[in-house]
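Can anyone check this?
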Amino acid sequence: MSDLVKRRERIARVRRVEHVQAAGAAAAAEAQLQQLEHSAARVLDLRLSLSSEVGSMAAATLAARGELAHRLDVARFGLADAIAGARATAHTRAAERVEARIRQESADRLVERAATDAAAVAEQRMANSIRARSPRSWGGEA
């Protein structure tokens, strides 16, 4: 195997590892986004559960519910910024994964082409090394 083929195989292995790392980073970013969206949904459910009930209620209970509702709203709005950042990160990581996959496929094609070229060169060398027999060696008259 030629040095060129070995070198390109090393590059292909590196590109495979880079793609696996990029895929892992994309999956982690997507999982983070899903977790933040789930948390926002839970906070919204908690906030909606604090809606005032019909009937009499103590002023302290009403004030506590109002304060808790306000804090849940602030937390939900804070999560909106985090979700937007996580979406942008997930989108970036997905694009990086696609780019890494393209580089991996390109490296794989280079390895295949180098191996094909090396085989063709070896075959040509073998063909050149075989000499045609001269008429004298055939046993005929010269």
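Reply from J.R.: I decoded it. The helical segments are 3-49, 59-129.
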